[in-house]
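Q: Here's a chain of 62 amino acids. Please give me its 3D structure as tokens.
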Amino acid sequence: MSQDIHHLGARHCYACIQWDGRRTFEQATKTIRADIGSEGRCLVKHATVKGTHACELFFPLK
């Protein structure tokens, strides 16, 4: 499956510690690789959401 490359600072689920979807963090470039259209469970809302979803309950990866 192909992957999108995202920047760490974005307020999307793929960059949130409360999202349990598949992603890979690249420390050297401060980017995140996530499968296109990837879904995961939001541990705050207890709902399945896409990695590109954005919400006000955002807890960034460190």
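Q: Can you summarize the key feature?
A: The chain has one domain: 3-50.
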